[in-house]
Specification:
Elements lengths: L2 E4 L5 H12 L8 E4 L10 H12 L7 E2 L11 H11 L5 E9 L6 E5 L19 E9 L4 H6 L3 H39 L1
Parallel strand pairs: 2-3, 2-4, 4-6
Antiparallel strand pairs: 1-5, 5-6
Helix pairs in contact: 1-5, 2-5
Amino acid sequence: MDYSFNLYNSLAPGGVCLALKKIIKTAEAAPVILCIGSDLSVGDSLGPVTGTKLKERLLGSNCYVYGTLAKPITAHEVKYMNEFLKATHPASPVIAIDAAVGLAGDIGLIKIARRAIKPGSGANKRLTKVGDISIMGIIAEKSVFNYALFSATRLNVVYKMSEIIAEGVASFILDYIQNSNVREAEANAFKAFL
């Protein structure tokens, strides 16, 4: 099942968190977050802006966020990231975040799905899929001039989307870590009781 939230909906951050809870019910390890995009184009900066906000919100927690404004992960690096993530975080589900193009009526939607994301497809690139869960922000209408649209995207739209995604994902991750700690404490208490 796919979930969609409008960036002007005040309940969207909570919706992002709940959607992730439904998609990732159990996992062996905390999810890893991969934010894809470039800081060279406003429309393509959704991933790095979100990654930067997530790094700030999750500071001190045991969570990995790849792709920030300081160290962006562009679509070209995704093929290397797949191998890296499988080797470094084999038990962790990967939440991939990227900007996307869609129908005119979908601009401003944040879409969450239990499937990999194919970065660069908005710019007609054929690249490797990445991630287990995708979060896509629809920032422009799909057309033959997608690259030009990415450059003409309003920063306000990207910024608001990144705020919503970062708030929802951070809430999910912090809740996941807290629940993992509670489960671990309960298991240890049960072992001590035996």
